[in-house]
Amino acid sequence: MTKLANKVAIVTGAGRGIGRGIALRLAKDGAHVVVASRSAPTVNKVVEEITAAGLSAIGLTVDVGSEAKVNAMVAQTVTTFGNVDILVNVAQSWGSPGQHALSPPETPFEDISDEEWDYTFATGFKGTLYGMRAVLPYMKSQRHGRIINFGSPQALAGKPHMAAYNATKEAIRSLSLTAAHELGAYGITVNCILPGILTDALADNLKDQSQRDAFMKTLPMGHLGDPEHDAGGLVSFLASDDASYFTGGTLILDGGAAH
Q1: Helix and strand counts by DSSP (H, E) for the chain
Q2: Confidence at residue 200, expressed as pLDDT on a 0 to 100 scale
Q3: What confidence category does residue 88 fall into, taking pLDDT thresholds of 50, 70 and 90?
Q4: What integer pLDDT is reported at residue 98 of this predicted model?
Q5: Helix (H, G, I), strand (E, B) or coil at 69
Q6: Residue 149: is it exposed, middle or buried by C-beta count within 10 angstroms (0-12/13-18/19+)?
Q7: Distance CA 227, CA 85 (A)
Q8: At a CB cut-off of 8 Å and minimum separation 6, what does 143 contact?
Q9: Rounded to the nearest 5°, which phi and psi values hold at 32?
């Protein structure tokens, strides 16, 4: 029997990148997976990948910056599968509502517009908060749950010219630690992963070969992690019974670059 057999997992931001890799891995490890993202075409593609392999998934389009839509996502999950055991908050958008970006815009903090600050927090911190609040009644009732949130090594290091993104990701990390203290009595664990994984956003920042070569030299492992094998594998462990005593952790998954 696979280690997540019959568990129900929601993965936000699952239409591409790290979220997609995590959704694929959790399904392979036996979970019923809710693939949640803003874009219906990417959601549908990931669901097709999972179900074509004979595994269990449904897709839901959701803007995590809307609490009502997040609540509806969780309600639909419970209607379909009966409960929710695992919440993985990966979703994060950059830029502003009228001008989306593939990666965090690099701007001195004093020049970041209010629109960008608000949009970054709404799609990152608030989306994470909304998801956590929505699943808690179910997890508390069953006295079991796994919440895995996503921060950033760049935020931990305070990378210049990325203040809105950094502040959002560090707020998520702080929320995760606080929630771990508050929810342990209910059998709910909360952990935060800070990934350095090959994604579309990272590729957007490494546009030419010289940039890629220079970046690779900063990685002790000599290569970038894989969304499904590395990020998905760590999430699957944290979501399993093997990690039932591990909570409040900040896990830097970047091949040793930040250490």
Answers
A1: 10, 9
A2: 66
A3: very high
A4: 75
A5: helix
A6: buried
A7: 21
A8: 186, 187
A9: -80, 120
First and final CA of the chain: distance in angstroms?
36
Return the active site residues: 165
Task: Identify the residue whose tokens are 């269990």.
Answer: 56
Cβ–Cβ under 8 Å, residues 29 and 236: yes
Q: What is the DSSP letter of 102?
A: S
What does residue 99 show for φ and ψ, rounded to 5 degrees?
-150, 80
Domain edges within the chain: 8-253
The Cα–Cα gap between 6 and 27 comes to 10
Beta strands (DSSP E) in 158-253 are: 188-195, 250-253
Q: What is the arithmetic mean of pLDDT over 68-77? A: 98
Taking 80 as the threshold, does the pLDDT of residue 16 lie above it? yes
Q: Are 153 and 252 in contact (CB under 8 A)?
A: yes
The rounded distance, in Å, linking the Cα atoms of 156 and 174 is: 11
Say what the pTM is: 0.93
Check whether domain 8-253 has CATH 3.30.9.10, yes or no: no
